[in-house]
Design brief:
This protein has three helices and no strands. With 67 residues, the chain is mainly alpha-helical. The chain has one domain. The radius of gyration is 14 Å and the shape is globular. It starts with 22 loop residues before the first helix and ends in a 7-residue tail after the last helix.
């Protein structure tokens, strides 16, 4: 499978898991702080919806087990 030239592939490496933070809080805070986040990356505002979709996928497809 080939990616389009306008697609950016990212990799996330989790060092510490914060399992007690509600996903909705994370999504809302990223949305509220996007103007600060966009200064540190190359993803334009018109692609913000894709970031939220990807983040939602990541947060809903991971799990934590202990012992």
């Amino acid at each position: 499978m080939c990616l389009n030239r306008d697609v950016t592939l990212i990799s996330l490496d989790v060092v510490t898991l914060f399992t007690n933070i509600p996903k909705e809080l994370i999504m809302n805070n990223i949305e509220k702080r996007w103007r600060y986040i966009e200064k540190k990356n190359l993803i334009p505002k018109n692609k913000f919806l894709y970031i939220l979709i990807a983040l939602n996928l990541i947060l809903n497809s991971t799990y934590f087990t202990f012992d």
